[in-house]
Design goal:
Layout (H helix, E strand, L loop, with lengths): L8 E7 L6 H9 L6 E8 L5 H11 L3 E6 L4 H10 L5 E4 L5 E2 L3 H11 L5 E9 L20 H6 L9 E4 H6 L11 H10 L4 E12 L10 H18 L6 H24 L3 H13 L5 H7 L6 H18 L2
Parallel strand pairs: 1-2, 1-4, 2-3, 6-8
Antiparallel strand pairs: 4-7, 5-8, 6-7
Helix pairs in contact: 7-8, 8-9, 8-10, 9-10
Amino acid sequence: MQHENNELISILMPAYNAAEFLPLSVQSVLDQSHNRFELIIVDDGSEDETLEIARRLAKEDERIKVFTKQNAGCSAARNYGLKHSNGSLIALLDADDTWHSTFLESMYCALSEHPESCLVYCGWQNLGVSKDRGKPYVPPDYNEGPDKNLSLLNGCPWPIHAALTRRCLIEKAGGFNENLHTAEDYDLWLRIAMGNKIVRVPEVLAYYHHYGHDNATANHALVAIDQHKVQRAYLASNTDALHSLERRRAKALISKQLLYRGFECYWHQDLPAARKIFRHAMRFGHGTLRQWVYMLPSILPYQLHKNILKLTTRQESSGSH
């Protein structure tokens, strides 16, 4: 149900070499049942026809505004779009993802009904992946649990396009960290949502498309290390956000999570990623003595480490017979 006196929602869409996918993503915005929005497309120095397609789409609907800038990554593009937007509410949609037609309406209504809340989030679905990974997912109601802060520190609780938040809070948080290659959305959500009320819309309204091309989440080492950096930075700069017991539990959780990602890569024979994560983990003293036995060879040259792993695998295999 639409609310009267709707606030303007600014949708920030960075686009880099997205000519193939941009029309579908834009159409999912134009199909929204809530039409009080502006779509800010920021071409991030694309080398294909992204800018031409964006400008053509803008001619067909006055709510679309197109900007172009030198390539500097999606965080810089989002910050640039924020400066050129007018809405008091902000939604974020990448140029290769989509929304359900009721996304803006459902999210806006939930935020309007809870004016004390800083952010509203919803469920999502991965498309173009295996059946197990493509199941619709509705996250828990973090406000209802006893460990909301720890739950948020456990990892990014929702994808970037599954939330609606207030412009003033993004600006107060300083926008997106342009030094991060991944986890930049998680970094922002922590700074906004920790210590403030958030609201869940228990519906799947956001779709994350996997087209088979390389993307940031495919680099397992980069994702794991950037997330660890975000978590550590938050704990370091917000010393009063958690009481002493929570901080100890948070530090243990963060360590366990990083090691899990490293060993997951290790046992799936992604040795280059595992080595990067292990070296990062050892730098901060994470892990048990037994885990260090596996991690220490990562400081050796790659081929030597690989040979050690092969020898160890053969010995374990022969010992099991």
